[in-house]
Amino acid sequence: VGGAIIIVLGLHVAGLIELPFLRRQVRVPMQTVLVASGDLQGSASGPHAPAGGGLATAAKRSAEAAGLDSQLVELVNLRVSQINGCAFCINMHTQDARKLGETEQPPYLLSAWRESPLYTERARAALAWTDPVTLIADTHAPDDVYEEMRAHFSEAEAVNLTMLSGAINAWNRIAISFRAIHPVKAKAAAA
To answer: Is the pTM of this model over 0.70?
Structure first.
């Protein structure tokens, strides 16, 4: 339908979503699983701004509704964007994290999160899961990393954390493929 996309992740059964294609049985309340519908236009504008922001926004809102902290959501988005090398998204999610009250240190140290004691156990579990989900062809999302993540996140949170990673991976691929350019301040551009 025009510029709309609808994503449905399973069968609706008595108010629950079942994801039968998963190796592990997952049954979570339907409203906690990403079911996105709407305009694909993002918040970015201009000739180099990619579409697809509606999907990323839906994943973010769904993750937060499932109980994921908004600052953790931004750190996950930023980490995936670092791994994928998406300058547009790195810039956007660093700014978004700062607007949410995140200090400068977590985004600065994110590429070395394993070596920094700055991150909580919950954040570390999310980041440890985010890395192999982003690099799925190489890692196949190892069971031990999944189990560690599940020790810190409910099923609904785990599903939405994984969907969040998938959505930002898609956004990164769109932004990189279509040469999205992050905003550059005039003074920085002249240097």
So the answer is: yes
CB 59 within 8 A of CB 65: no
- Position 35 scores a pLDDT of 38
Element (H, E) at 127: helix 121-134
Q: How many CB atoms lie within 10 A of CB 185?
A: 8
| Rounded Cα distance, 14 and 35, in Å | 16
The 3-state DSSP class for residue 84 equals: helix
Residue 114 clears pLDDT 60, i.e. is over it:
yes
When pLDDT is cut at 50, 70 and 90, the band that residue 57 belongs to is confident
Look at the alpha carbons of 90, 91, 93, 95 in this order and tell me if their dihedral is positive or negative.
positive
Contact 53, 42 (CB under 8 A): yes
